[in-house]
Amino acid sequence: MSAVQELLLMLLPLTLLACQVSLCRGACVEVDSDTEAVANQGFKLGCISCKMRGEVDARASVTWHFKAADETEFTPLYTYENEVGNISDPRFYERLDWNGSKNTKDLQDGSIYILNVTFKDTGTYHCVFKRVFTYSNYEYQTSPNKTIVVNVVPRLTRGLASILSEVMMYVSIIGLQLWLVVEMIYCYRKISAAGEEALRESAAEYLAIASESKDNCASVQMAE
Ligand SMILES: *[C@@H]1O[C@H](CO)[C@@H](O)[C@H](O)[C@H]1NC(C)=O
Ligand SMILES: *[C@@H]1O[C@H](CO)[C@@H](O)[C@H](O)[C@H]1NC(C)=O
Ligand SMILES: *[C@@H]1O[C@H](CO)[C@@H](O)[C@H](O)[C@H]1NC(C)=O
Ligand SMILES: *[C@@H]1O[C@H](CO)[C@@H](O)[C@H](O)[C@H]1NC(C)=O
Predict the structure, then answer these.
(1) Is 141 in the pocket of ligand 4 (CB under 6 A)?
(2) Entry pTM
(3) Ligand 4: distance of its center to the CA of 128 in Å?
(4) pLDDT tens-digit readout, 108-151
(5) What residues does 36 pair with on adjacent strands?
(6) Mutation probe of ligand 4 site: the residue of 62, 74, 124, 143 with most atoms within 8 A of C-beta
(7) Which residues of the chain does CATH 2.60.40.10 include?
């Protein structure tokens, strides 16, 4: 085996380890942003762009543009570069905060947070990543982007159907629990009556039997 081959074999575990570390750090899921904001509350405008080539070094900046409902053109809203955010739109001065990746120039989450949403914030938001991959002797640039149409509502509207179904859920959960308790008592009595044999069964098996239906109870007794 040549010296070069030996060296490569020695380096293999290290390389694997390095890959693993970058894979762990690169765990990223592209979740779509919410689109319904509530007036006078905060709202997170989500924009996630996962880096496909996790092992390649990259740096990214994020720019946001905004087009209000009554406007026809996008205007610059916010820029985040070199870990510094800059609000460009006077309508949003003091009202925007960075909610994306922190302490890194390799941004994958470009989300921003609107404080005190107003009805004038209704409109279309566009977020563009400018990501530069650095290979050993060249650079490669991509610009993944997302468009989010945001609607501002007075408060979160909750349909009657949703409330009714929640009530039904609780009613059925409580009903089933009561039924289970009654069934357990019924089975317990039957089994005790069956004598010592059944009492020797472990507590776990007791429960298993109790959760079966009445018919099963009867057949257990028959078998004994
Ligand atoms: C923020 O952006 C404006 C133009 O949009 C620019 O004039 C200003 O210098 C920027 N501020 C910082 C701190 O980058
Ligand atoms: C987003 O920013 C807001 C305002 O600064 C903050 O309250 C919130 O905790 C942030 N959320 C995340 C996930 O960083
Ligand atoms: C939102 O606006 C109200 C008044 O318009 C103000 O009292 C409140 O402090 C603001 N909240 C935030 C988080 O900026
Ligand atoms: C937005 O992304 C698409 C691909 O998803 C790309 O073709 C397009 O050039 C991007 N637009 C901008 C403004 O970067």
Answers:
(1) no
(2) 0.64
(3) 8
(4) 999 999 999 999 999 999 999 999 999 889 999 999 999 999 99
(5) 151
(6) 143
(7) 28-153
